[in-house]
Amino acid sequence: MTPGTVMEIGRQAIEATLMMSAPMLIAALAVGLVVSIFQAATQINEATLQFVPKLVAIFLVLILLGPWMLQYMIDYIQRLFGSIPQLIG
What we know:
mainly alpha
């Protein structure tokens, strides 16, 4: 196994991690922005006000995109395990 192969496997792992986490992070970011604008407009300065909407948004993203995320992870693991014979020999 060459250093280039190790770097490629690491790059693919980071790419898979980003693809799996991006929808939830984007949803949390969007909801946080909307709630922050609402707090600024109404002058409600409550730090815990953002927690529940973000939690609901992440939960909805998991429900909607969960099957895609699971399939993406399965495909990645199958490619990784399928490449083991080439890495060893």
